[in-house]
Write a structure and sequence with these properties.
The protein is mostly helical. It has one domain: Nucleotidyltransferases  domain 2 (Four Helix Bundle (Hemerythrin (Met), subunit A)). It starts with a helix and ends in a 23-residue tail after the last helix. The mean pLDDT is 84.
Length: 92
């Protein structure tokens, strides 16, 4: 996959992860704990897959643990402008 496609795919997965996390928070407030946990897990998985695409790799699987362990810390070089402290992505 080209670098440009990888960046677009990373952004798409990150936006979806953010949506799932927002859904988890709403469900928690409604005392829908099982569904909240499901969407929280989905948010984590999708955020990690976004990172995989961001470093131009192909994620595989649904295990958060495996997605974390599959990323070499030496391959991650996040530009300072990519994410900021508000939690919103500035990836274009």
């Amino acid at each position: 996959m080209s670098a440009e496609k990888s960046q677009k795919e990373a952004k798409r997965w990150f936006i979806t992860a953010t949506d799932d996390f927002d859904t988890a928070k709403i469900l928690k407030l409604s005392a829908k704990y099982a569904h909240s946990c499901f969407h929280a897990q989905q948010a984590g998985e999708k955020a990690l897959k976004s990172l995989w695409y961001f470093i131009d790799s192909d994620p595989w699987g649904h295990s958060i643990k495996m997605l974390i362990h599959g990323i070499s810390p030496f391959r991650i070089r996040t530009p300072s402008h990519a994410l900021h402290t508000s939690g919103k992505s500035s990836i274009k």
